[in-house]
Amino acid sequence: MKTFLGVGSGPGIGLATAERFAREGFRIVLSGRNPAKTATLAQRLTAQGYEAHIRTVDAGDPSSVASMVVDVERSFDGIDVMHYNAASMRKAGITDRPATRSTGTWRSTSAAPLPPPRPSSPLCVNVARAPYC
Ligand SMILES: NC(=O)c1ccc[n+]([C@@H]2O[C@H](COP(=O)([O-])OP(=O)(O)OC[C@H]3O[C@@H](n4cnc5c(N)ncnc54)[C@H](OP(=O)(O)O)[C@@H]3O)[C@@H](O)[C@H]2O)c1
């Protein structure tokens, strides 16, 4: 069975993409900062008969992403598709938000390096930032 890892899985594009891969027979691993929210999303997949697991990650912290990737690779004998999805969407003008808010968004969507590509690197679907892979 192939493995799909969502990095920063939310109820929008994050879950929809995972569901699409689940329909293709992939095992799904969803991840996010809030395990309760991630578990609720995973339950929506398991309720449809799909295999879904969760992990906790802060995409703004490179070591958190790296250790999760290693954990998922070891748990499921590799990762076939990684969906980099983490982003905090806020409907506000640039003058309406505190600078720390913008910095945090930038850190999770643009600054966090993904693990370096290896010969066995997964296909990476990246909707959160400029192309990395
Ligand atoms: N919606 C659009 O119109 C649109 C357009 C173009 C591109 N995109 C991109 O597509 C992706 C999905 O967008 P969406 O609106 O559908 O969102 P989504 O998949 O519903 O949720 C995105 C998830 O990212 C999580 N996240 C944010 N910062 C994180 C961090 N530091 N570590 C881990 N998880 C984090 C959020 O969880 P928390 O609850 O922890 O914040 C949220 O659940 C985003 O990358 C977005 O930039 C969206």
Show the helix and strand layout:
Blueprint (H helix, E strand, L loop, with lengths): L2 E5 L5 H11 L3 E6 L2 H12 L5 E5 L5 H15 L4 E4 L14 H13 L11 E4 L7
Parallel strand pairs: 1-2, 1-4, 2-3, 4-5
The site of NADP nicotinamide-adenine-dinucleotide phosphate has 22 residues, from helix 1.
Describe this structure in words.
This protein is an alpha/beta fold and 133 residues long. The protein has a single domain, classed as NAD(P)-binding Rossmann-like Domain (Rossmann fold). Helices cover 38% and strands 18% of the residues. The chain contains 4 helices and 5 strands. It has helices at 13-23, 35-46, 62-76, 99-111; strands spanning 3-7, 27-32, 52-56, 81-84, 123-126. The longest helix is centred in the middle third of the chain and has 15 residues, at 62-76. The relative contact order is 0.19. The chain binds NADP nicotinamide-adenine-dinucleotide phosphate. NADP nicotinamide-adenine-dinucleotide phosphate binds at residues 8, 10-14, 32-34, 37, 57-60, 85-89, 108, 127-128.
